[in-house]
Amino acid sequence: MEQIGRNIYYENAYSGVTLGGLILPHGTIFIDAPLRAEEGRAWRSALQGLGGSANRLLINLDAHPDRTLGARVMECTIIAHQKTAQVFRSRPSVFKGQSADSGSEWETYDEAVGTRWAVPDITFTQSVALHWGPPDIYLENHPGPTPGAIWVAIPAEKILFVGDAVLSDQPPFLANANIPDWLVSLEVLSKEYPDYTIISGRGGPVPSDAVRLQRQHLSLIQKNLDKIARRDIPPEATEAIIPTLLAELQYPRSQEEQYAQRLRHGLSQYFTRHYRPADNSNNQPE
């Protein structure tokens, strides 16, 4: 656990995603949940040991299983964007391991299948302020990785949790993404939060240059998909651009197959959804 502001922490040690924790006068706020149940209980206890309150709130930055499968263990009220809540309503009440081979962290956790979802209790459409402090906390919708993706801004401390909007040296999750929206959100990030500490949902703090690199990487994906779309070929043909995309990133070789599979799955899903929608008319976002 690392402290990045007054009673504001992030944690990279647990399975799933990078977590946030805020210990405020009115209670404890969790940003995302560990994937594994035992780690969720450990995270809850860790913040309790730092003075955390029994009054707790969990923020889901989006609906990805890596950050939401462990939500029930946190035993608290959950807040998320309205479009994130809609995803939960379209899912079975028990996780059945859908979208396998997506290059996600949950695929390394056998016990994930059979987990009961915790549906958000509170939703919003554009933004909401939490006056549990000081400091005040602001939740804002910034679509791109998913329609319901949100950021958590703490202006008084100049800290911003951005979820999967910025990933440092790993490929993005594309299956439910919208690249043009994502590029707009990154433009907002560059212009409106230039001096903030940016916490990625997969890796923790990232330098401001990571935002520029993320924009370049997404633009490269868009350019390659546009080229493929001009030809009458199946979505699986997008696999041909994976080596080019991975060459843009620096990552441990041990992650190569996982990251290649993440792109293989995401590119095919994205291409079908955005370039061949007639072939995807019966599918719903997940």
Structure description:
This protein has helices spanning 37-49, 65-68, 82-90, 179-192, 209-229, 242-246, 256-275; strands spanning 2-5, 8-11, 19-24, 27-31, 56-59, 77-81, 122-124, 127-130, 137-141, 150-154, 159-163, 197-200, 204-206. The longest helix has 21 residues, at 209-229. The strands form 2 sheets. The protein has a 7-stranded mixed β-sheet with strand order 1-2-3-4-5-6-7. A 6-stranded mixed β-sheet has the order 8-9-10-11-12-13. Residues 281-286 have low confidence and may be disordered. Helices cover 30% and strands 20% of the residues. It has 286 residues and is of the alpha/beta class. The protein has one domain (2-280): 4-Layer Sandwich (Metallo-beta-lactamase, Chain A). The chain has 7 helices and 13 strands.
